[in-house]
Specification:
The structure holds two protein chains of two kinds. Chain A is mostly helical. Chain A is 75% helix and 0% strand. The longest helix of chain B is centred in the first third of the chain and has 32 residues. A two-stranded antiparallel ribbon of chain B has the order 1-2. In chain B, helix 1 crosses helix 13 and helix 12 packs antiparallel against helix 13. Classes of the chains: A mainly alpha, B mainly alpha. At the A-B interface, helix 2, helix 3, helix 5, helix 7 and helix 8 of A face helix 1, helix 3, helix 4, helix 5 and helix 7 of B.
Chain lengths: 334, 283
């Protein structure tokens, strides 16, 4: 493993992460070089390592480095591993106690299929909308000269990206619900508006997805160097050509990574939908919740577990796309 | 972007993001037939269940923050200092919870909890199952929240550790005769104060707003109470929503101020958003 790959930024704290100045990167490269290199030198030559970092590394071992991580693994195993196993086991266990694929095939059939597709459709749509509006808003803010505006929008995004769940649902119900302020004052109900629908939910989801995208893409936009634009212009490129050949290719990993992140967030969302629409919009999270709270026949519990497994598969795909892209997006921006 | 584009985008965004907040405020203070009154807000503190559920949520939050820091800090520091091979493992393990949405995690947890009465009722373990589900203080929620917070906390911590020369700090402390625990507590942790605050805030925000796991397992912390209360008093629940948003805002601003003060001038440009990051906390 090269020192650099071990030092690859992996942070969720993207706004902070994506812009560590070269100074930080240079500083970062040294300690892993020492730690990764020294055991190899020692092991192959059998001689005491000569470099200073290597000597340090030998003197420092924390008694039981793995021991320090034991509590973490214990909690993860207990509160995550065990439920995950139970879920997988239940998803494959049939009513008569034997193993089979019946639950899984039922989980992608009939009403459950509708719910899964509904969730995917809603998530894809809101993620696309969030990506587009988030990019536009971030670009508008980043390219503006006023620092106050920039700080205000980024702080607000930080808050609003976390303004999910129940409070968000209530704010939208108060605004656009049946008795909402806008609905009554503008007479929206007469025009067929209903918040408790697919589009109402989409509009609500954008309220946290757009800020999330702003936070994701703002560092990348910051990383577009003025010099690149100037160089392109000096070579005779139009603004359009600059975006087509320089801007977008550099932004693309961030945009794609942001898109799947938004998709994952919308896909996993439950509280907002539950507090707002009850179960009038078919979503997989609502279906699972229904089955878990015993609103359906006994024996459906294992179908709920199978549905959960479906969700895990989708979420795993999302992460499998997102994490490499996130690493890649830092390449040009470091 | 075209010259007209930017103001238009900002205007639309301003409308979209401000109108629900303003409308909600109007909704809570303007009651048809009574005119403008603050009664929705004054009622909050006497509403049945408010104090109990809020205290439960705060207790859960404190316990989760303590637990999650207690398990991640030693592991992350150890990975940094003496077990570099631990680091990729930690990274994978701490990313895993992102792959399992809260609803799915709850489905699994519920299954495990049912083993208690079904399979283990004759063993001493049964008492443990009962104890972790004590409705006055459900430990199972603390465990679940710790798992859910882990990815964010670990990443915040990892980024924080990267900006501190832990090795030199520990070495200096050790050379001065400090024991291992003392070197960690009095040399490393003070340098990570901003990071720890950040991580604690993330966890706090997650736990205070968490609805999914708690409601599906049948417990009644703050967010669940809000939904139950909304059935009988919609204005009250909207008022509480607005207050909780305000509280998040204040906490975040406080944290940003603390963070900025502690940083070098360079960071005034790289705005740090503590809570934001993955953002999928509580929905």
């Amino acid at each position: 493993m090269t020192p650099h790959s071990s030092a690859a930024p992996s942070g969720a704290v993207r706004a902070h992460d994506a812009r560590p100045a070269p100074a930080g990167a240079a500083h970062e490269a040294t300690p892993p070089a020492g730690t990764a290199g020294s055991p190899m030198i020692d092991g192959t030559t059998g001689r005491p390592a000569k470099t200073a970092p290597a000597r340090r590394a030998r003197r420092l071992p924390l008694p039981g480095g793995l021991f320090a991580a034991l509590p973490l693994f214990l909690v993860i195993g207990l509160a995550f591993g065990l439920p995950a196993l139970a879920m997988t086991d239940g998803a494959f266990t049939l009513a008569d106690g034997s193993y089979g694929l019946d639950n899984l095939s039922r989980s992608v059939d009939g009403a459950y299929r509708t719910a899964l597709l509904g969730s995917i459709e809603l998530s894809a749509l809101t993620a696309a909308g969030g990506t587009l509006f988030g990019l536009l808003l971030a670009q508008a803010v980043v390219s503006s000269r006023g620092r106050a505006l920039r700080e205000a929008v980024l702080t607000a995004s930080g808050v609003l990206a976390n303004f999910g769940g129940v409070p968000l649902a209530f704010a939208f119900v108060a605004t656009l619900g049946n008795a909402g302020v806008l609905t009554t004052s503008l007479g929206l109900g007469d025009h067929g508006w209903s918040l408790y629908s697919f589009w109402g939910l989409a509009l609500t989801y954008l309220y946290f997805l757009v800020p999330l995208m702003v936070l994701t893409v703002a560092p990348a936009l910051d990383g577009l160097r003025v010099q690149w634009r100037e160089a392109a212009r000096d070579c005779g490129a139009s603004a359009r050509q600059y975006w087509r050949h320089v801007g977008l290719p550099v932004l693309l990993p961030s945009l794609l990574g942001g898109f799947v992140l938004l998709f994952g967030s919308a896909f996993a969302a439950y509280a907002t939908a539950a507090a707002m629409v009850g179960s009038s919009v078919p979503l997989v999270t609502l279906q699972i919740a229904d089955a878990l709270s015993g609103n359906v026949l006994v024996g459906q519990e294992n179908v709920a577990l199978a549905l959960s497994l479906d969700m895990v598969v989708v979420a795993a795909l999302v992460m499998a796309v997102h994490l490499p892209l996130q690493r890649r997006s830092t390449r040009w921006l470091a | 972007m075209a010259r007209l584009g930017r103001p238009l985008v900002l205007l639309l965004a301003g409308i979209y993001f401000l109108v629900p907040l303003l409308a909600s405020t109007v909704f809570t203070v303007n009651i048809p037939g009574q005119g403008v009154t603050l009664s929705s807000y004054t009622r909050i503190f006497t509403a049945p269940g408010f104090t109990g559920s809020l205290l439960l949520s705060l207790g859960l939050a404190a316990a989760t923050v303590a637990l999650v820091l207690l398990i991640t800090v030693p592991a992350a520091v150890a990975a940094r200092l003496s077990a570099p091979r631990l680091r990729p493992v930690l990274e994978v393990v701490c990313t895993l919870p992102l792959v399992v949405p809260p609803v799915a995690l709850t489905a699994g947890l519920g299954t495990v909890l049912r083993w208690g009465p079904e399979k283990l009722s004759t063993t001493p373990l049964y008492q443990t199952f009962v104890a972790v589900q004590n409705p006055d203080f459900p430990l199972v929620l603390v465990l679940a929240y710790a798992v859910m917070a882990l990815p964010f906390v670990y990443r915040a911590l990892d980024a924080g550790l990267r900006s501190v020369d832990v090795r030199t700090l520990v070495e200096a402390a050790r050379d001065c005769g400090a024991s291992w625990p003392r070197a960690l507590v009095s040399a490393v942790l003070p340098n990570l104060r901003g990071t720890l605050l950040n991580a604690s805030f993330l966890t706090l925000a997650l736990v205070l707003g968490e609805f999914t796991v708690a409601s599906l397992l049948g417990f009644r912390p703050f967010a669940v109470w809000m939904v139950q209360a909304s059935g009988s008093d919609a204005r009250l629940s909207v008022a509480v929503s607005l207050l909780s948003l305000l509280l998040t805002w204040v906490l975040l601003l406080a944290l940003t101020t603390v963070g900025n003060r502690r940083r070098t001038p360079r960071s005034s440009r790289t705005f740090e958003v503590p809570a934001a990051s993955q953002g999928k906390t509580s929905r």
